[in-house]
Amino acid sequence: TDARTPLIAGNWKMNLDHQEAIHTVQKLAWALKDAKHDFSAVEVTVLAPFTDLRSVQTLVDADKLELTYGAQDVSQHVSGAYTGEISPVFLSKLGVTYVAIGHSERRQYHGEDDALVNAKSKAALAHGLIPIICVGEALEIRKAGEQVSYTLAQVDGALEGLSAEDAAKVVIAYEPVWAIGTGEVATPQDAQEVAGAIRARLAELYSAEVADAVRVLYGGSVKSSSIAELMKEQDVDGALVGGASLDPEEFAKIARFQ
Ligand code: PEP
């Protein structure tokens, strides 16, 4: 973990309108300030609904917050006849740093597959956004003991055709589907098993340098009570936090691993 700055990312999902977003970011900024949060030691980001991004940008700029922000999805296209889609160019103009790609809820409810995750990741990178590529197995796959091979196939699909330079920039979030929103956090050992396998795959696909550079997050029912043990694992470089990121005090605690 040493060379990699840990990342704590809050996925708000479809919660918080633009006014609630302002309040939440203000409260989060205060909580982090109270805790004397060192952003060079642990990066903190919030992945907000599209309609919140302008408000979050205004607040972050006005108060010179070190907090970064991101989106929860992006189009694979740059512009044109794609009604309802959001271009990576639009996001980059709003000062967006990160974009979640292939979250399990998008795979499940919107039919997103590895090829689309790959195309969206390339589009994001081409416009200066950092993809947080989400992977992870459902319960039946874990019961069959196939979590590593299943998740690595998703990683392979997401990274297909990416240069080493681009691959070194991405963040990969290992989020077992059975742990998302269920209150059932993976054990640190389970998280490490797959996070370690993802890093080994990056070394195989690219190089040791790329494998060392990429941050691998764990996601799935992370709370302040579970983060410390997860962060002790060698290949867990942070967390993607859903439900608990809606509470600024709790999320700030997670950002200090306690
Ligand atoms: C998520 O949305 O990526 C997530 C991990 O949610 P939760 O923390 O609520 O399980």
From TrEMBL:
InterPro entries named in the record: Aldolase_TIM, TIM_sf, TrioseP_Isoase_bac/euk, Triosephosphate_isomerase, Triosephosphate_isomerase_AS
Gene Ontology BP term (one): glycolytic process
Compartment(s) of residence: Cytoplasm
Listed GO MF terms: triose-phosphate isomerase activity
Active site as annotated: H103 (electrophile), E175 (proton acceptor)
Reaction catalysed by this enzyme: D-glyceraldehyde 3-phosphate = dihydroxyacetone phosphate
Top EC class for this record: isomerase
Record's function text: Involved in the gluconeogenesis. Catalyzes stereospecifically the conversion of dihydroxyacetone phosphate (DHAP) to D-glyceraldehyde-3-phosphate (G3P).
Protein name: Triosephosphate isomerase
Gene responsible for this protein: tpiA
